[in-house]
Amino acid sequence: MKTQSSNERLGFIGLGNMGGAIARRLLHAGYPVTILDLDPSRMAGLLQEGATRAATPCEVADGSTIVLASLQPDDVEKVACGAEGIAESANKNVVFVDLSSTSQETAVKVSNALRQRGIEMLDSPLSGADIGATNGNLTLFVGGSYEAYQRCLPVLQHVGRMVTYLGANGNGQVGKKINQMMQALSELAIYEGMLLAEKAGLPLQQFARAASAGCAQTWRLDEMVGDVFNHGVRKHRFRLRPGRTGNALKMAEQLGIKLPGTEAAHQTFSRHGWEIVIDFDDDKVPE
């Protein structure tokens, strides 16, 4: 359904699983969208649905008022400030919204470089799975100028159900990393609770359902219970990338504080090769 009523013209760079789904939501919301991806096959469907193709990030910025990007961390600075990048655009009415998960340092460096060229930037990393990108059920952690945030908010509300301003550039990336740390602690609590339940002789499937209805309820626990009861999953895998705890530990060290729970999660998942499998068929949880 076409719902857009503003005069914003959007650009979107990076059409992977998340980026492609978000760009399609914005296109279906009625915004004119100019797209760019290194893989032409990722653009084909959106072009058939009415998007416009650009050849370079600079060209995307030339024809847009807000440019969003969903990129690998190493590509953000190149797209923003490299040859034929956004910084080379003559359009100074454009705002760059980086949806990628990078570092606070990268966000500050790139935003400062763009600001010197008269272009504002928001760092706005996402939390949520691919399905969240499709249905707009993402969480956005936003850093940058408040004026740029206010201007982009109507667009970002098509991207996520929760769009939160956290202050200066770089703070969006900090918020995302803390969120990832808290997710890891949630997974550690579920793992240790399920291990204790197994050793105490409880049926794991029934215990997980009971816990998810009590004060231990979390998004991750609901996900596990839903997979088991609604989708017939018999082996649930907790996969944790080292950075989800490692980034928070590095940040804590720089700030001179200790995070013992995060250290425990990092050590536990590291010991298991960053994957823990709960077997509901045999009621087994690895020690």
Give a short synopsis of this structure.
With 287 residues, the chain is of the alpha/beta class.
Q: Quick one: how many beta strands?
A: 11
Main beta sheet strand tally, sense and closure: 6 strands, parallel
Low-confidence stretches: none
CATH architecture of the largest domain: 3-Layer(aba) Sandwich
Oligomer: single chain
Mean pLDDT: 95
Count structural domains.
2
Shape: globular
Whole-angstrom Rg = 21 Å
* CATH classification, class level of the largest domain: Alpha Beta
Assign the CATH topology of the largest domain: Rossmann fold
SSE class? alpha/beta
Order the strands across the largest sheet as they lie in space: 3-2-1-4-5-6
Write out the CATH superfamily name of the largest domain: NAD(P)-binding Rossmann-like Domain
SSE ordering? EHEHEHEHEHEEHEHEHHHEHHE
Helical content stands at 40-55%
Tally of DSSP helical segments = 12
The end-to-end distance, rounded to whole angstroms, is 51 Å
Strand content: 15-25%
How would you explain this protein's 3D organization?
This protein is of the alpha/beta class and about 290 residues long. It folds into two domains: about 10-170, NAD(P)-binding Rossmann-like Domain (Rossmann fold), CATH 3.40.50; about 175-280, N-(1-d-carboxylethyl)-l-norvaline Dehydrogenase, domain 2, CATH 1.10.1040. It is about 50% helix and about 15% strand. Helix 1 links the parallel strand 1 (about 10-15) and strand 2 (about 35). The longest helix is centred in the middle third of the chain and has 29 residues, at about 170-200. The protein is globular, with a radius of gyration of 21 Å.
